[in-house]
Amino acid sequence: MSMRLTGAEIIVAHLINEGCPYIFGIPGHGNLALTDALRRRQNQITTIQTMHESAAVHMADGYYRVTGQPLAVFTSIGPGALNTVIGLATAYVDSTAVLALTGDTHVHMAGRGVLQEIERRWSADNFRALEPVVKRAWRVTNVEQLPNAMQRAFNHMRSGRPGPTAINLPMDVQAAIADVELAEPDQHVPRGASLGDPIQIEQAVKLLAEAKRPVILVGGGVITANASAALREVAEASGAAVVNTMMGLGAFPADHPLYAWATGSKGTSCGLQLTRRADVLLAVGCRFADETASSYRPGISFNIPPTKLIHVDLDPAEIGKNYPVTVGIVGDAQAVLAQIAEGLQAEGPRDYASTEYFAEIQQLKQEWREKLERHRDDSRVPVMISTVLQRLRPLLDRDAIVVSSSGNVQAQIIQEFEFYQARTCLTTGGFSTMGFTLPAALGAKLAAPDRQVVGLVGDGDFMMHMQELSTAVRYNLPVVIIILNNKGWISIRDLQMAAYGEQMAFATDFMKDDDEYSAPLAEIARSFGCHGQRISRADEIEPAVRAALQSEGPAVIEVMVNREFPYTGTPAVGWWDVPVPGYLAELRARYESERGEESLR
Questions:
Q1: Of the candidates 200, 195, 202, which has an alpha carbon nearest to the alpha carbon of residue 331?
Q2: Which domains does the chain have, with CATH numbers?
Q3: Inter-residue contact 147 to 181 (CB < 8 Å)
Q4: If exposure means fewest CB atoms within 10 Å of the residue's CB, which of 14, 25, 122, 167 is most exposed?
Q5: What pLDDT, on the 0 to 100 scale, is given for residue 296?
Q6: pTM
Q7: Cα separations in angstroms, 103 against 61, 78, 126, 135, 595
Q8: pLDDT value, residue 188
Q9: DSSP-derived pairing of the beta strands 401-404 and 280-284
């Protein structure tokens, strides 16, 4: 049925028809018409006003990671639109979905140099800055193009490998009116999962059934495809150890006897030993990025070949990109794992718990636990991050959502924090974005208001988007943010010292007048209206966390953590290609020797 609507009204109507309960953003002169259309239908879609456009994208991203439902963000022209780049790049690299609606110059004014227009090379050129970080972008120059653009934007976000999209909205297009027919979302949604080729499935089943040391490497694609149940069936039918990438955390329960933690440069000794000694490796929904592959040095994360690789991915470009495959299967992770499980079950049951390999898995896991215990010193003041994680986990529900960003805390979460369900670990993967934790936690809380949501974040990371405490208070989003305050960019300082020598730490400590400096973050949180508490000892952790969880609004616990190397983190057991300058002759020689072992096909 034809309706007479403005461009902005078309957008809002489509969002409502898509079932979007929220939209995030900041009003400006470049999106006045869209903001007014949202006002007119505020009883059907809630506008969450953030304090920064990048934070708006992270909030929508956090919501998607919990629910699988993409939402939209809206911005003005110029700086507001370009502020979304970091958030969109995070979503793009991690394959999560969000729609960016960015205001722009009037169509008839493009190239005149209007306020906040970039036009020296091309008229109204701002939008091109978003193109590398979205799956697809639309420049809408006529209001009648909007129904099709909105429908296609949602289809592109959700189909195939998920990712963000963007629509450029000139101010006059938002305000223009036309007789249009709105696309019915249900009539344009691609349905059905992509099955694996039967011949490839048969080969994969045969390899797994005959394997003596099978390992399943779990990537984020398993979570996106809601494939945890099928993954468990394959693991138990094959007796394979289950090891994850950073993005695969939570896809397989950490208390399952076949779970063997993570591999890679931030991985664990048990995960690394199992993946490099596997005779068959089933990799599902992962990219074999450099951190997972220990920068492609054979014998660190993997030995492919002689390990036979079965690689399953929805994106055919990922198969064979970094390692040669014995079997490459293009398809949906859930559908393909179900096919493999059916084939393995037809081979007959496997009593994996009685095998020598199973006993080895348990032994390797125990050795890793003992290594962590030897490294952890609960008597230290300020407390170690490892102690915080150990004391925190028993205080949280099994389905609690834990959010983190880049830094030492993320590395230690990968190595020692247990997750039991998919979509309970939200972290920045391939783009390794700082500033993600707080806004993504707010998005997660909107997605799961009845579940515990805890953000674990370093002080430098937190201060990138600390203004979103205002958003948390204004919308009464009771998240718990635990700041691991080590007064600096300490993960980078640790890397400087590890790679260049302990005397080489530079520009990473927060200093004032030659003294260590830390802003009073708990006090600042209280000034926003949050519950706020600063602690520094192990025996303070449990009462502080319980008080924060029981508070009626957002809460911040500032934990002063140890900044004395090597008590700042847990040991790195993989390898990462960190170039060393030539003037550090001995270290450079070692680096060149190690780099010479990289196998880049």
A1: 195
A2: 2-187 (3.40.50.970), 198-365 (3.40.50.1220), 376-560 (3.40.50.970)
A3: yes
A4: 122
A5: 96
A6: 0.96
A7: 20, 8, 10, 19, 47
A8: 77
A9: unpaired
